[in-house]
Amino acid sequence: MMTYTFIxxxxxxxxxDASLLPPPVPAYRNLTADxxxxxxxxxxxxxxxxxxxxxxxxxxxxxxxxxxxxxYGQLTxxxxxxxxxxxxxxxxxxxxLTLTEYQGLERxxxxxxEQDPADPGLTxxxxxxxxxxxxxxxxxxxxxxxxxxxxxxxxxxxSTVWVYDPDGYMVxxxxxxxxxxxxxxxxxxxxDGPGMTYVIRxxxxxxxxxxxxxLTFYHDILDFDIAPGFEPLIGPDxxxxxxxxxxxxxxxxxxxxxxxxxxxxxxxxCEWYEYDDPDRVALIYPVQDIGVGLTYYAVQNLxxxxxxxxxxNLTIVxxxxxxxxxxxxxxxxxxxxxxxxxxxxxxxxxxxx
Length: 353
Description:
- The chain has seven helices and 17 strands.
- The protein is α+β, with helices and mostly antiparallel strands.
- One of its GO terms (biological process) is L-methylmalonyl-CoA metabolic process.
- Pfam families: Glyoxalase (PF00903).
């Protein structure tokens, strides 16, 4: 998919915008996998584009017309449906945001909750929390905890607000206090260029049924540089009460949580959580359902990874259970151990003549 996207966008940008484009070949950190996009199914593509592009200021890289592609239908188990997409740049990241709208099949609406397994979250670091919170208040954004959008924090402090986008997908807008607040990734380059009116970096979050599932899949199979714990809040392989943090998500303060954190690539912080909330319900829905998340990973040896996926008894969503070629990429859609949707994509080997 990313190869197609890059080629389609070449003529759309000036030289000054070139840094916003994802590289045509992912910059592999290791020999296994790297994130290339994150996204979800949307109710109405233009409405959601208006939120991320018009409100949050992310640069729109591509927006397609309706397509009916039998290979894509097989890949995503949406045979017979049409789809259209928009791809937006995330500042200082190699990966993008992919929004997909489907038509021609039933779609349920899924409103996310932080405590539910397979619940994703997109964290966007912002320059100034007061500025972005005023913007969110201006559009009457719905916060995850149902409270009004708060006033932002002073410069040099950590200030965060979690909101729902138009599809019920959770987005965090956070102002970092200093370099240490980026944890395991370096501070981003901050400019006033395209796409950085408010947002300066992205981060990927996901809730698991059990925190150890993040290790068995994202560490053991995809080889990410991650480990148990979320210092200084949670030590390795331990549970702590969420305390005041629970108020952000309407989770009881005496709910226990555990975490796995680290890097998906050298500049991408990734965090996985487990909550012992007795009311949690796994968000396992078809890819077309509104608000359902999906993360795309570029891999170097799809067949080897697929063998490990099968050995781990993970669910393969793609019809027929084998990779499908879409936009020049061998791809397959699976579910991670929590049931979250994961797209594995492999570029065909280059042939030297």
